[in-house]
Amino acid sequence: MNVQFKKGVLDLCVLSMLKESDQYGYELANTLSEIIQISDGTVYPILRKLATDGMVTTYLQESQSGPPRKYYRLTGLGKKTLVGLQQEWLAFSKSVNQIVGGDVQ
Amino acid sequence: MTREEYISALKNALRALPEPDITDIAQDFEEHFSIGLSQGKTEHEIAAELGDPTIVAGTYFEESLEDIGHTMKESAAHTAAAAAASSSANRAAIVSSGTSSAYSTDGSSGTTQAAAPVKDLSGARLFVILLNVLVTWWAALTIYCTLLSFWCVSLSLMAGGIAAFAGLSAASGQWTAVLVLSGIAGVMMAAATGILNYFLSKWTVIGSKAYINWNKKLYNKGF
Q: How many CA atoms lie within 13 A of B95 on its CB side?
């Protein structure tokens, strides 16, 4: 799929995935790369940006298998931003669908 | 690519960032490798899934550029669109080159224009010009002249009717009836053709406007 398409919505995807439960980077990268065919490495810059912007916080947690994992959790700001982005996305994708579907000249 | 090769390539591509940031980012990827290995993947597999380390590193610069874009938006709301455009142009440059030098050159200039595909309009413009010179000009001339002559007919009918009434004072006997009848007929026919002409004119104006708009659109935006 077109790379430029994905870029704009990756923030939204990551925030949405963190809505239900805290997740660690590997988990997020794996799920995202399976669903929208991005390289796993793309997820970390996004997570870092989201952390810088105060959308997520991180904490380390031990695991039974392997090293401790850095978990990401949505902040209040992150939740609020997610709601806004979701609405924007729904409206935007609807408009684009209209144009692509040929309803608009 | 082994884990070690991957991390060092990543660090190398990130070298323009502050040292603590590089360590932090490298730590994330170390963790990713460790988890992948504990799930039975090989280092090569994990490296392949992560994607080219230079491109991944470029994405970190891209994110910081986006911040620059946001700052520009905040400082000058009017140039918001321009900021976004230049930010995305820079982003494209970094993604394609994936080097930190691209960041410094494009980032400092900040005036890179978004390379929007330029549509070739020459065909559409030539079509508009030829259409107007060869067809529309003559068609429009015919239509407007016809309309003008219709109005002339209405006016002369009206004039004839009025003249007939004006002549009443000088007429006598049977001529009075003839003049009254032709006067009424003239005015009635003038009114009827006038109404018809009014609508014909209105439609012509509407049609002309639509045609001009269509020409404008074709000329400026192409087919």
A: 14
Q: Which domain holds residue A71?
A: 3-100
Residues of A in contact with B117 (CB under 8 A): none
Confidence of residue B223 (pLDDT cuts 50, 70, 90): confident
A44·B37 Cβ contact <8 A: no
Alpha helices in B14-113 (DSSP H): 19-38, 43-50, 53-75, 80-97, 100-109
CATH of the domain at A15: 1.10.10.10
Q: Give chain A's residues under pLDDT 70.
A: 1-4, 103-105
What is the average pLDDT across B155-180? 87
Distance from CA of A75 to the nearest CA of B (A): 20
* Domains identified in chain A, total number: 1
Chain-chain contact of A3 with B95 (C-beta, under 8 angstroms): yes
Does A105 fall in a domain? Answer: no
CB A30 within 8 A of CB A24: no
- The stretch B158-164 carries a mean pLDDT of 91
Task: Please report the ipTM that was assigned to this predicted complex.
Answer: 0.88
Q: Is A32 on the interface with B (CB under 8 A)?
A: no
